[in-house]
Write a structure and sequence with these properties.
Blueprint (H helix, E strand, L loop, with lengths): L17 H19 L3 H10 L8 H11 L8 H12 L13 H7 L5 H10 L6 H5 L5 H25 L11 H13 L9 H31 L4 H5 L9 H19 L2 H23 L6 H9 L2 H13 L3 H12 L6
Helix pairs in contact: 1-2, 1-8, 1-10, 2-5, 2-8, 3-13, 5-8, 8-10, 8-12, 9-10, 13-15, 13-16, 14-15
Length: about 350
């Protein structure tokens, strides 16, 4: 719950975290799956699990951990999500992981480098890494989860960005996808133009945008399925992506993403805190690498028993599982520096 989406957790408890984001993705995914007669349970499972491998401090933490692991196989958060459900969870006496189906595991691994796909294929021939080597698409349910993720984070990043003061409703007027719904809401409810109504105006515009995007996905996907008429999931794998926006909505969504990248994700205030977050992760890795006994006993023993690669992977697993708050506190404990919080 205390893992960054865009804003580091110490910046306030009112912004989205990985948990709230995953719940929103699951809600969107399940609703669309029901309209398309897809497997709702599979969609919900993948949506809820898709960010399990994210590090503290969001992509800044991932980039720092990937740099730290450069000599030991690197770090990819999608692959780490799969690692969590396949290996790291230890709830059952007979096996590691939580024994998910192939389809759920495939959906969780939405991106993968070719190098890691080859490693997965060597360990599990014909498994979840194969489609990346063959250039195949995943199941319809996995495609839907990927798109629900995009819809959710675009919408809530607007919300969090405006509430944080880093972007404004006036700036968002340059984004056609959002401004159309702002204008509709303001025309229907003129009182929302007043300062006291701006919060309601933002929420109503986002609600309308989300609704139209959902209906657009349903209509565009139905049209694609009617055109290609796949008879089973194997046929789906050999076709172009079938779950998606209409061309017009896709173009508008990309324009929104460009705006958010330029005005929010690269905002100087966000960049300043992400630089500090990278430092926290790098220094945690360095300390644990040099002295594994600074980790809890189970992780320390695992690191000390393995070779250099296993040692480093154990450290990466431990850091990746931290929340923002825990990572900041551990860094302060180990270095005496309070960089965040």
């Amino acid at each position: 719950v205390y893992k960054t989406q865009v804003f580091l957790n110490h910046e306030g408890d009112l912004f989205r975290t990985r948990l709230t984001h995953s719940l929103e993705v699951a809600q969107l995914g399940r609703s669309i799956a029901r309209s398309l007669a897809l497997n709702e349970d599979l969609v919900e499972a993948v949506c809820l699990a898709h960010d399990l491998g994210h590090t503290p401090f969001g992509h800044a933490g991932q980039d720092a951990l990937n740099d730290c692991m450069a000599d030991f196989g690197g770090f990819e958060h999608n692959l780490q999500s799969l690692r969590v459900v396949d290996e790291l969870e230890d709830r059952y006496p007979a096996y590691d992981g939580i024994n998910l189906t192939f389809e759920a595991r495939e959906g969780i691994l939405k991106h993968c480098s070719r190098r890691n796909a080859e490693l997965l294929q060597a360990c599990e021939p014909g498994g979840v890494g194969q489609r990346f080597l063959l250039g195949h698409e995943p199941s319809l349910e996995a495609q839907l989860c990927n798109l629900a993720d995009e819809i959710a984070y675009n919408a809530h990043d607007i919300d969090d960005g405006v509430r944080s003061g880093l972007i404004t409703l006036e700036q968002l007027r340059e984004v056609p996808l959002f401004d159309r719904y702002r204008a509709q809401a303001q025309q229907q409810y003129p009182q929302l133009a007043q300062a006291a109504g701006r919060r309601r105006l933002l929420s109503e515009a986002i609600r309308r945008m989300l609704s139209d995007q959902v209906y657009d996905v349903i209509a565009a996907t139905r049209a694609a399925l009617a055109e290609h008429a796949p008879i089973d999931v194997d046929a789906v794998r050999g076709l172009p992506p079938l779950v998606g926006f209409s061309p017009e909505m896709r173009a508008q969504s990309r324009a929104l993403k460009r705006f958010l990248f330029r005005e929010l994700y690269r905002h100087p205030q966000v960049m300043q805190t992400t630089d500090l977050a990278r430092q926290v992760v790098r220094e945690l890795f360095s300390v644990y690498q040099a002295d594994p006994r600074q980790m809890p006993p189970a992780q320390a023993a695992q690191a000390l028993e393995g070779d250099a690669r296993q040692h480093a992977r154990t450290v990466a697993d431990f850091i990746a599982g931290m929340t923002d708050r825990y990572a900041a506190r551990e860094h302060e404990r180990l270095t005496g520096q309070r960089l965040l919080g």
